[in-house]
Amino acid sequence: MVINSDMKMADLVMLDIQILALIQRLNIPLGFRDKTIREVCTEHDVNETFFIQLANACHDSDYVPKEQQLTFPPECMIRYLQSTHKDFLHYRIPSIEKQIAEIEQFTDSPRNPELLLNFFREYISEFQSHLDLEERTVFPYTLLLSQCIREKTLLPQFSTEFGEYNIDRYMHEHNDIEEKLFDLKNILIKYMPPPTDSRKYNSLIHDLFHLEKDLNDHTDLENKVLAPLVRLMEKELQRII
Ligand SMILES: [Fe+2]
Ligand SMILES: [Fe+2]
Asked: In this structure, is residue 103 part of a structural domain?
């Protein structure tokens, strides 16, 4: 099903609960009553085209926007990705780390949870490096590229800072950040001794699956929406200069 602006915002959340995280990252408050997506976006100053592309990409993992649908300001996209990074780093990941740290309270073998925690902390450090790299390269690159197009000129700082950089390089270097979570799920489900309290243990497994799905969606968004958008901007800059 393709999401459009005439749909009611509340119906969209009922249709796909994943959209709730997207709404939160855009700082849109709940309490939609019967307002449409268009009305809610206007009320909260969210670019409607951007919201529709975002919602479709989140709802359908096979969704790829057409070139003519990439007409929203790139700044919206970068703000959204930055907000998602913060959400992962300051909320989702620490919450799972806390749950892993608590495993020893409901298992009989204290050594295993410690190994698991070290494994997850290694993952956090790799994860942080992935996010840091994007925040130092592709995000500022996109914003500066957008400024060059707006001002119809090749700004000197663009050539100095990003002379050798382009979106193909980003795509080449862009790796999956959810792979290690698969290993963690495997250890928890297959190899850890049975827990004494399986409710908390199962809740951790459930949260890991959820995080993995969200990370997958995030990577998809960067590959299927951000990259084509930036590629179009690169062509536009070539045309201008
Ligand atoms: Fe990212
Ligand atoms: Fe990424």
From this structure: yes
195 found inside a domain: yes
pLDDT value of position 7: 98
Residue 25 CA to residue 60 CA, distance in Å, equals 19
How far is the centre of ligand 2, averaged over its atoms, from the C-alpha of 20 (Å)?
21
Separation of 219 CA from ligand 1 center, angstroms?
6
| Ligand 1 centroid – CA 138 distance (Å) | 10
How far apart are alpha carbons 171 and 17 in whole angstroms?
A: 29
User: Are residues 45 and 130 both part of a single domain?
Assistant: no
Token readout for 101 is 């740290």
C-alpha 45 to ligand 1 mean position (Å): 24
163, HSE (Cβ side, Cα atoms, 13 Å): 5
54 burial class (0-12, 13-18, 19+ CB within 10 angstroms)? Answer: buried
Rounded to whole angstroms, how far apart are CA atoms 119 and 207? Answer: 17
204-218, pLDDT tens digit by residue?
999 999 999 899 999
* Same domain (yes/no): 170, 92: yes
Question: What is the number of domains present in the chain?
Answer: 2
Q: Are residues 166 and 60 in the same domain?
A: no
* Beta-bridge mates of residue 36: 8
**pLDDT tens digit sequence for 76-109:** 999 999 999 999 999 999 999 999 988 877 666 6
Instruction: Calculate mean pLDDT across residues 122-136.
Output: 95
Ligand nearest to C-alpha 135: 1
Q: Are residues 110 and 151 in the same domain?
A: yes
Judge if 120 and 47 occupy the same domain: no
